[in-house]
UniProtKB/TrEMBL annotation, chains A, B, C, D:
The keyword Signal does not apply. It comes from the Bacteria. InterPro entries: Homeodomain-like_sf, HTH-type_TetR-like_transc_reg, HTH_TetR, Tet_transcr_reg_TetR-rel_C_sf. This is TetR/AcrR family transcriptional regulator. Keywords: DNA-binding, Transcription, Transcription regulation. Residues 13-73 form the HTH tetR-type domain. PANTHER family: HTH-TYPE TRANSCRIPTIONAL REGULATOR BETI, HTH-TYPE TRANSCRIPTIONAL REGULATOR RUTR. Signal peptide: none annotated. Residues 36-55 bind DNA.
Length: 200, 200, 200, 200
DNA sequence: TATGAATGAGTCTTCATTCAT
DNA sequence: AATGAATGAAGACTCATTCAT
């Protein structure tokens, strides 16, 4: 009957953030499939329509939740190597490990978004292209090259693309069991191939 | 009250095939997203219910359309290189081209799997085909290595995995336009990286 | 492509009769629930549309099949007693037995027709009110009364209605397990009650 | 774009109750046959989807409407006679009247059970009520017999079963209009038959 | 007369969005 | 700002009926 502040401010959190956080948790546990606005509201303990006071539509909320999910996950994966420190091989190893873990966690969320292209557009609009692993990998490689620890004329962008692609493929191997490589190469072999190639 | 031979036989084509073809075109242009039964019927110029005279499900129709789409495109992909002939770089280039085109066709299947997991079942053949290229790539690389045109101790399995992964990723870049790399490396750069690595 | 005589006349039977017979068998085994025209046609081995060459619509076919079902069933239940022969009690016993068996067989067919009132209207139109058990029971009782084996002023119509009702109720007791009498009286008791009443 | 309080609160009635009442009226006038979700909504003057804000199913709504219909009518049925008071004939008359009215109300349930067996589940209460009258009738008869107002050795259970059956049959005569007896006996005749039988 | 592919209105159900309070 | 009941346009699927052959 009367406006309630209820759950929204029990802990001084804005409803905006509460909704994003709730949706994020739902994404983390069940993906975005079957995630209805009513369900989100119910889990957040707020009214159905409150969403539209803070977001233009459901897509915006989901996109933000997705972004938050990626950020959160990435933040929990630990540190990435510093250029110039350790060995390049070891550092690439760490990057690969990081990338594989990241994609494994994020995949379910994105997978079910395939049918809701609008969300991905929003995601693209609100996400600033920095700080994500792919960019950090490229940056890392470029700095190592600048330091002389990689060949000056080497194709670091291509190498990054190959590594990122490998992560994607390993994720798809889980989604589509039959498409995966039967006998996946070891991380060491991957790093070795990226570093020294296969030419004589 | 209504035409009986309708569009189906305007060109001597069965309605079954007309529907598959229509769905195939829709997949090719817009993916499986938002592809409703009614829309398919409308685009085929037939009644809503026809679908169920020829397919048990919407899923069956979609799966068949997908399959047909893969077959059609695959037939246009041309030959893969023979080990020992031409240059290794050129041959890898050709393999990459083939793989990219192949995965581009497979992508739509990925989309529909999110909400229609049943499609995966009937789509088994596709994975075999996708696997087929991977195996041919590995075989090719191993034969080139045996011929001495690749380094003896090189990680050809890892190199193949990287290339396959790159194809997957490039496909996802189309499915999720905003998540892809802003400036994808050239095929030449990819081949260069695979051949010579990035180490000094 | 060309008109077929096929199954219809394999045994010199008209399609009309084949369809009625097929529908009748379906009613006997599964009731009328979910009995689609396509299914009838398929089981009769004829084309979907042939029905409309012999019946104005599905309802007419089903009504005729129902009628046939009742006739057939009734014919298989054996003889009813002849007035004046045996004892009245024994004869009533036989009538009751007959009625219970009849209703037990017919019930499933009628039950699922409850939602298709059109069929019952047709049934009423085409069924001539004679030969059915209820009428034979009334006739029997009146003749016994005329013969002096029942009280002259007795309410034989009412007695018949009570007996018929008892058969209905015993059928419903099977359809709705919870509504049936927990401890149904014996046929002997029923006959006794009908014959001598309960008044002092 | 559309009214928000709509019909629901025109008279201070909840939409839940409005829907039940609307469905109840439809049952009372036309039975459950052809009672579509859309038709219910249209007659209630509300949107198609409202139903699912208040009931899990169409079945739940129908079951509740049925139940309400039974309750309402049953409340109007009045008292049953007390053993030893009045005449037995008059009392049986009253019992018969009560039973007929009661079963008349139960009839629609019978119809809906054909295609919606799930309704039976939620309808358990009704059978208890129906059983209730039967038990009261048996009890009544036994007490009258104990009082000496019925023959000591009379089959009161059988008599009760006949009367209950008669009620069932009279209900079926309404559900299946064309199958009923063309010339139903009067209540007096029924009572007379039950009291004095038909034997000489 | 028989065929059977095509029709399309109709079924129940879901869910993002609105708006009077 | 918050509420949450009401909205209504989809969604996939069914099936009695028609009609060119």
């Amino acid at each position: 009957m009367s406006p309630r502040k209820a759950a929204a401010q029990r802990d001084g959190q804005s409803l905006h953030d509460l909704l994003v956080e709730t949706a994020q948790k739902m994404i983390a546990t069940h993906g975005t499939t079957g995630m209805t606005v009513r369900e989100i509201a119910r889990m957040a303990g707020v009214a159905d329509g409150v969403l539209y006071n803070h977001f233009s539509d459901k897509e915006e909320l989901v996109a933000r939740a997705l972004l938050e999910h990626v950020r959160t996950t990435e933040a929990e994966l630990g540190e990435l190597p510093v250029p110039g420190e350790g060995t390049v091989a070891g550092n690439l190893h760490r990057h690969l490990e990081f990338g594989l873990a990241l994609h494994k966690v994020i995949a379910p969320a994105f997978r079910s978004l395939a049918t809701q292209p609008g969300v991905l557009e929003r995601f693209g609009e609100i996400s600033e292209r920095s700080g994500y692993w792919r960019d950090r990998l490229v940056t890392y490689l470029k700095e190592e090259r600048a330091l002389g620890r990689l060949r000056q004329e080497s194709e670091v962008d291509a190498a990054a693309a190959l590594l990122v692609g490998y992560c994607h493929a390993s994720v798809m191997a889980e989604v589509f069991p039959h498409t995966g490589p039967l006998d996946p190469p070891s991380a060491d072999a991957i790093v070795e191939a990226v570093l020294h190639g296969i030419a004589p």
